[in-house]
Every structure is written in structure tokens, then in C-alpha cells.
Amino acid sequence: MSHEDSKIVLTLREASDNYLTSKEGIYLSNYLDHLDTRTAVVEKEYVDKGYLIDYSRFYARAFKSYERFTTRLHFFSVDFSEDDFKKMLLSSNTDQLKEEYLGFTVIKPVVNHKNKPLVGRTILKTYPEEINHEKRYFITEKYHVSLYGVPLEINGLPYKTQDIAVGACATTAIWVSLYPLNKLFGISLYSSYEITEKSVTLPAEIRSFPSEGLTFNQMINFIKSLGLDVEIINIEKASPEQKNSIISTAVKSYLNCRLPILVGLTLKKDEIDPPEYHAVVICGYRADAYGDIKEFYVHDDQIGPYSRTIPKDSLAEWENEWITRRGYSKLTVNKLLIPVYPKIRLSFLRIYRYFSRIKEEYPYLKFDLLLEQINSYKEFIIKNSIENKEELLFSSMPRFLWIIRGTVSDETKKDVLFDVLFDGTSIFPRIIKRVYFK
Amino acid sequence: MDKNKKRIAEEVMEKIETLINDPEEQKKNEEFVRKVSYLSPEDLMETFNI
After folding, report:
1. Does A417 contact B48 at a Cβ distance shorter than 8 Å?
2. DSSP 8-state assignment for residue A95
């Protein structure tokens, strides 16, 4: 046992050396350094529900003994010693802890093939929203955390690395996507074991446990078993000129509604090797002043949370650690899979082509395609200067709306001209309202 | 909203309405939906396992 094992307050360096030693752990350490993390607080014998279910369903039945408890590390952007921390707790002077909280990571008592501890459920603050006149957008939710009785809050999207015993990349990507779906639609959360177990009720020739991955069909099967439906965008079938626009529009539309996008990726080492398939979740993007996407942020179970991913020649060709450090030469988006509430019956693809046509007709205007829930859209109506505000607020409207927004902009300002509202619960596009901005 | 912007807004909204009610556009739209959402048996059996 090292000296750090008995301490509960560590520097980031000490926490990294002791706990963040896997490749994903090293990524986390670098990310935390970028967030200017100064101090980590260790919570030993932490009961992580997801791990405990995986433990009871898989590890408890192994001949080898595994621990039931995990270790949770909490991160802060302020320096304090163990004595300072105890004084803050005992005197109820915890405001600074709340203000400087950056999130947590759970370290599981199981190791990967290199004998490094696996990174479990992790919720960390995102990158800053603004950078050099460009904006970042993330799917985040507020999560409540208790550290030795101190109530803390963090906005983020849960992440974890894959535990091949109970699930590979596809299972982990679904696990990530369940968190926003839980907040939005009350969908239950499942552990990795449970996700894999439900998915493989649709048989495939590969092994279920230890997991050898999921087929695309099994991923769809799991999402449908939750009572949700799926929106599938087969990027490979789109023409080269359509790919960019479809990906950009879909990412902005769904992330605006806080719906996660699961991405099927094809990885190739060279032209001779067969393709390999990987699943990740797009959880954010950075756009320039014109709204063009310059960077994706991806929860990749084998890289880390908010992994920065740069589009190469198009938004369908990516560059990140798979290319720069892992020996692959090509990383291609092949499919998007979006879990949707069944009442969103008007699919993205049914509205997208009209949106695309109108953009062609009026190249001097800027258009956005948005998916909105009626409550949040009416809040938007209240806050904005709109000619027919009263009519809109008192009108009965469907729970989900697709919106084509037209904007005119010059060098100095951007004016929204109109919104055209489509009934998101209809099968085919049906306009229900026009919104005139003042 | 000034008159010119209102005129543009009206024109574009009318165009959207015309497009979605045009049978030829509707036919092209359905063809596009079928093409870009189609999954072959091979697509469905792709195994995501990295």
C-alpha cells in the first residue's frame, strides 16, 4: 500500500498515478488537467449500482474473488489539503467545494488485459461553451452527487470505458445514451450486463458473455425493447454531396432536443485489411459563426469522454486518436442510430429533404432544422419578440415539433425571420403554424 | 419586422408549403427516405466490437 492509499485528498498527479493508469485513465488525467483540476478527493468503498449489478450477474459467479465496492474520485479546481477539507466539512463551510466541483469518476475493482483498473461511471464538466467567437454545444443534464454528506451538482453526460466481460463498445454506447433518455422520457437505466443480456435475445453467432460485441440489429432490438423507436440514417447510402449536410443537420437537430446520437463507425488500417466496426456517441459539437461544424465531441469508450474529433475532408471522415495514435488510417461514419420517443412519428429523413430543397432555393438565407418539445418551444415564444405570440401561446399543439427556421444575417447582426412549425407526431410533413418574428 | 423582411418570410414560407404539397416532390422525398434509411441484411449483421 502506497502512502497515497491512506490519504483521501490528493493532487491530480497523485490521483492519476494511483488510479488513472489505463489508457482511458491517462486520457481522463489529461482532460482533468485541461479543466485546471487542482485537487481530488477519494471516496473509498463506494457502492456503484451499475457495477454492483454487473458484479452480481457476472463477477460473483467467477472462481476468482472480485471486490464489490468501487473507489470514487471527486475533482475540484481549487487547492486544499486534507486538513482544510476536514475543517470545511466539520464547520459546514462547503460553498467553495460546491463552486469548484468538476465532477467524479468511479474506478472499478476489475482490470483490463493490461492489469489496469477500469474507469467506471464518470461525469465531468464539459469544455467551455465559447472559444474564440465559436460556440460549443453539449447534451448535458444536471446530476446530484453526495460527497461525505456534502451535496454537489455537476452538468455533464455520463461516460465509462468498456468492460469486455459484460459489454463491448455498442453496449457502452447504449449505456451512455440511456442517461439523457432517462431524463427526457423517464426511460429506465440499465447496467452493461443488462443491456447486453436484453440485446442478445435476438440471437447472433457471436458470444454473449464475455461480450464479443453487438450486431446493429441487436442494438436496434435493445432500444425497441425499451418502448422507444429508432431513427436510422444510413450515411453510406447518401450521395457524397448529401453526407455533409445530413450529418450536420441531424447532429444539430437532435442535440438541440437533447437526444444522443449513436454512431456506427468503420475503421480501416489499410485497403487490404477487412473493416472493423465501432460504436460511439456524439455528445457535442463546436460550430463557427456561420454554424458550420468544426469539431465533434464524442464519448468513445476506448478513448474517453468528450473526445475531440476533427472532420477531415467531410463530416463523414473523422480524425481522432484512432488515426493519430492507434494505427488506423481511415475512420468513417457509416450509420447514425437515434433512439426516439415513439410519438416522434415524422422522421428526420422525411423532413430533411424539404429542408435541403428550401436551402437550395434561397442560398442568401440561413436555415436551421430543429426538433423541439412543445413546452420548451412555448418558453422560447414567451421570451422572444414575435408578432403572433398570443395566437401561438393559446393554441393547442402536438408534443413534438419539427421547425424550419429562416434567418437573415449580415456582418453585424443576425435576424430570425420566421419559423415554420411541423406536426412532429404526423407521418408526413404537415405545417401547423407560421411564426413571424418582429 | 420591416416590410422587405416580411415579404421574404412570406415568400419562403409559401415555397415550403408548395414543396410539401407537390406530388412530384413527395414522390422524390419517399424515394430519398427509402434509400437513406435502407439497411441490408449485411448492415444489420455488422458487429460493433472494437
Report:
1. no
2. H
Give me the residues paired with residue A405 across strands: A368, A419
Rounded Cα distance, A420 and A164, in Å: 47
A362 and B CB contact within 8 Å? yes
Which regions in chain A score pLDDT beneath 70?
1-4, 411-412
Give residue A370's domain range.
348-436
User: Cα dist. A284→A254, A260, A309, A332 in Å?
Assistant: 11, 9, 10, 18
* Nearest-CB residue to B47 (from A215, A358, A431): A215
Domain-embedded: residue A430? yes
Phi, psi values for residue A357, rounded to 5°: -65, -40
Residues A297 and A374 in one domain: no
Place of cell 432517462: A182
Select from A158, A178, A202 the last residue of a domain.
A158
Asked if residue A238 and residue A267 are part of one domain, the reply reads yes
pTM (2 d.p.): 0.97
How many independent structural domains does chain A possess? 3
CA distance A165 to A191: 12
Domain final residue, candidates A125, A158, A191: A158
Q: Are A141 and A9 part of one and the same domain?
A: yes
Q: Is the ipTM of this complex over 0.85?
A: yes
**Is the Cβ–Cβ distance between A61 and A67 less than 8 Å?**
no
Cα A66 to Cα A60: distance, rounded to the nearest angstrom = 7
Give me the residue label for grid cell 463530416: A315
